[in-house]
Design brief:
By secondary structure, the chain is mostly beta strands. 4% of the residues lie in helices and 30% in strands.
């Protein structure tokens, strides 16, 4: 299916002359670009004489394939844009992604959705164009499919072979249909495989279903044509499956067979390879975009095909900046990338050595005409946003740097470009001044944002900074809607006051929020779906939800989150998590209603306090109280909580009622969960009280440490013994009650304290009856860390079944352990391939 991914064609030979002008030159085309006529993706023919593009030019209203000659003098010439794919008069279709040109320059491959299927399929035409109203399918006559797939896209030439994605081939012909209720995380199934079509027209599979789902832009053929490098995604097979989880790289022969993982040094957080990967011209390394170093920040990395620790190639980025796409110079010495490097709101084009290095990049694109997030080098990750000339001296790229929202074609040499450096707009208005008044914001040059670019309910694409000030809002029903590239930073002492009736704060995918010891208060919803860097301070919705939505990537250190401190709107005041990509330490979560987890979220908190009140929207009949809210799917269009896990680590605490609707709770470290706090008896409450763990689902409570504790304040409505698990043995309380400090629990009665029986072995801090590397981390959390580490060191390797004959580990191995735990630390669990 059509994804936002990138595939760049770098083959080009001749070089346009910039006539001594080192500035970027906008290529003026005939017809000219306009809000309805503009470029989407570009490629160059191998001889470098022709640009082939997907674009929209009148009279067409959808993307078609066009060509234009490379101008000899771009500053003067006005090349004619010629349509190559057939007219839309007889067909309704929309070309997707960048066109692909054969190595001999004679054939163009392109994908569009004008077939009898609902998906894109690949078509072929001569470099001179179709010349008729007929499409020629790469895979045959209509429906132009390779069984068992239902579409095709993202072709790659390797000699005369064509590799492509066979849409949904992983289902083997049995593609599911997701029910509308409960609402799925991804609306459509997705399990694409790599296939090959040879010069004789024979089509064969390269990857197998077990190799995962492969997305466009995330597979590449090595220069010698022997292997394919790819980053697999999770197949979307059921409604709770998530796409966009790619923490691994693999290689596979272009003839198929068994794939081999490229070993990457582990990170302390879940990371994802995104948008694009490419093999270097010498075939030694693969470059990829991902948040390998910092959660939520997509940067450019390089790693040998043999594996190792990825090296960051892109330069230091703005906190909310990302790399969206890149191109490797044919010389193999440099790489160009588009990124929000100076300011997350402004994408610019940079070049850096292929080896990277901080401070080695130069901006090669012309600066925006003014400091505004509405002017960018194209931030699209779809493919074909930039391409080098064959001698690597020039770059053709797309961007709306002349007219906002109009993608023009530019050519530039690779020297540094001086001029305006984008900067955030800082609040300079009076204390309590209006957020939505542009004159209250100034950039480093003293300029205000353009008029009507910070309007209620309209997309905000600027980088905004509140530096110790109080900012309010005039009027009710106002929404700050941050879109791709938009960001908001609050420094220590800042206060964003959105408590007027009906105000909301919305950070969409691709936006960012950074908060350091500051306060945000909003009357209604706070939606966090972008990159969030939160340290200290408070974020509060006084009457509604705080939602960490689908694509958020979040780091939290010591921040307090509060919902419903004033009252609750109907069925609201929840804290909701829909994504696992979160690092949480030392935080406080206070939900006036419940804590929501959905779509198989794995949420781990460290030294964090979570509490609920169960108020909901029914204040008359269910007033709520400490711990009266559940851990569940809080939406009425669910339940989609099954398979989600909340893990309490360190000294974390949870005060709630039921572990509900299929959520599982894991207790580790010295964490304490106090549950069944609601005494019941209110209208609408279940007769007989509440389950400790919902008896209608497969959720459990698992103890991973003898230091963890479960307390219940009221009796359970159902026997929970089979759902309380000793994680050290895998046995439930029902299977082995002797492992617990209470051996006669009936699964119903109130528990003053339930814990695993501790180990008698010195240094065994996780109480699993042996002293190993895991105990070292816990030793550092003891009241006397030095003494605890000494006990661990003295007994390392011992177990209750095997005496420690060797005592202290050898110095080299001990040092290795200490280094490993110090650098890597424990990672969170994420459902992966």
């Amino acid at each position: 299916m059509r994804q936002s991914v990138t595939r760049l064609l770098l083959a080009c030979c001749s070089v346009a002359t910039l006539a001594g002008d080192v500035h970027a030159v906008r290529i003026m085309t005939n017809p000219a670009t306009s809000p309805t006529d503009q470029f989407d993706n570009i490629a160059l023919t191998p001889d470098g004489n022709t640009i082939v593009a997907t674009a929209t030019f009148f009279p067409e209203d959808k993307d078609r394939v066009y060509s234009l000659p490379v101008p000899a003098n771009p500053a003067v010439d006005m090349p004619l844009v010629t349509q190559l794919s057939t007219s839309g008069g007889a067909f309704t279709y929309d070309v997707a992604f960048a066109p692909v040109i054969s190595p001999d320059g004679q054939t163009i491959l392109f994908a569009h959705d004008g077939n009898s299927t609902a998906s894109n399929t690949i078509y072929t035409m001569p470099i001179t164009g179709e010349g008729s109203s007929a499409f020629t399918g790469l895979l045959g006559a209509a429906p132009n499919l390779a069984s068992p797939g239902d579409g095709s896209s993202h072709p790659i030439y390797s000699g005369t072979d064509v590799f492509f994605l066979n849409n949904n081939a992983g289902f083997g012909g049995s593609i599911p249909t997701f029910p509308a209720s409960p609402v799925p995380y991804d609306g459509s199934p997705d399990w694409d495989m790599i296939y090959k079509r040879n010069s004789a027209g024979t089509v064969t599979a390269v990857t197998a279903p077990g190799d995962g789902d492969i997305d466009g832009g995330l597979f590449a053929v090595t220069p010698n044509g022997s292997s394919i490098v790819y980053a697999p995604d999770n197949p979307v097979r059921v409604g709770t499956d998530k796409s966009g989880i790619r923490p691994k790289l693999f290689t596979i022969s272009t003839s198929g067979g068994t794939s081999t993982e490229i070993p990457l040094t582990a990170t302390a957080h879940d990371f994802t390879i995104a948008n694009q990967l490419q093999v270097t011209p010498n075939g030694q390394n693969v470059l990829f975009i991902g948040d390998y170093e910092t959660i939520g920040k997509n940067e450019l990395f390089s790693v040998p095909l043999a594996g190792g620790t990825p090296t960051r190639i892109s330069d230091d980025l703005y906190w909310a900046g990302d790399v969206s796409s890149f191109a490797i110079a044919p010389s193999g010495t440099h790489v160009a990338y588009a990124a929000g490097q100076n300011n997350g709101a402004n994408h610019e084009l940079f070049q850096t050595p292929i080896t990277g290095g901080t401070g080695n990049s130069v901006r090669v694109s012309e600066p925006a005409p003014i400091n505004s997030g509405i002017f960018d080098v194209s931030p699209s990750a779809e493919g074909g946003q930039m391409v080098y000339s064959n001698d690597s001296s020039q770059i053709y790229y797309l961007g709306d740097l002349t007219t906002a929202e109009v993608n023009d074609l530019y050519v530039v040499d690779t020297t540094a470009k001086a001029g305006l450096v984008p900067s955030p707009f800082t609040f300079v208005g009076p204390s309590g001044g209006d957020f939505f008044t542009e004159s209250n914001w100034e950039d480093a040059q003293g300029n205000n944002p353009p008029a009507n670019t910070i309007n209620p309910g309209s997309p905000i694409r600027h980088a905004l900074l509140i530096d110790g000030d109080t900012v309010g809002v005039i009027g009710n029903g106002r929404e700050a809607d941050f879109q791709v590239g938009g960001s908001l930073e609050l420094t220590a002492g800042s206060f964003l006051d959105f408590t007027n009736l009906g105000t909301e704060l919305d950070f969409n995918n691709g936006s960012g929020l950074k908060l350091t010891d500051a306060t945000i208060k909003v009357h209604q919803d706070i939606f966090l779906e972008g990159t969030n860097v939160l340290s200290g301070g408070t974020i509060e919705s006084t009457d509604d939800d705080i939602e960490f939505q689908d694509f958020h990537k979040t780091s939290i250190n010591g921040t307090t989150f509060i919902t419903g401190a004033n009252s609750c709107l109907a069925d609201n005041c929840n804290l909701i998590f829909e994504n696992s990509a979160t690092s949480i330490t030392g935080a406080t979560f206070e939900a006036a209603d419940s804590i929501g987890l959905r779509y198989e979220v794995d949420l781990t908190v460290h030294d964090t306090a979570l509490s609920t009140r169960g108020m909901g929207g029914d204040l008359d009949n269910h007033p709520g109280g400490p711990g009266w809210g559940n851990v569940e799917d809080v939406f009425t269009n669910g339940p989609q909580a099954a398979g989600s896990t909340l893990t309490l680590n360190g000294s974390s605490t949870l005060l709630a009622n039921s572990i509900h609707e299929g959520v599982s709770l894991v207790l580790d470290g010295t964490s304490v969960a106090t549950l069944l706090a609601d005494p019941g008896g209110h209208p609408g409450d279940p007769i007989g009280g509440f389950d400790l763990v919902d008896s209608n689902f497969d959720g459990t409570i698992t103890f991973m440490s003898a230091g963890a504790e479960l307390i219940t304040l009221n009796a359970s409505a159902s026997d929970a013994r089979a759902k309380v698990i000793n994680g050290l043995t895998g046995l439930s309380y029902l299977d082995d009650p002797t492992a617990w400090n209470v051996t006669n629990w009936d699964g119903l009665s109130v528990l003053a304290s339930l814990k695993l029986v501790g180990s008698s072995l010195a240094g065994d801090f996780d109480n699993d009856n042996d002293v190993d590397g895991a105990d070292f981390l816990l030793a550092q959390q003891e009241a006397d860390p030095a003494a605890a580490v000494a006990a661990w060191s003295a007994n390392y390797g011992a177990s209750l079944s095997t005496p420690n004959a060797t005592g202290v580990p050898e110095p080299a191995s001990l040092a290795l352990l200490l280094t490993a735990f110090g650098v890597c630390g424990p990672g969170r669990r994420t459902r992966q391939i």
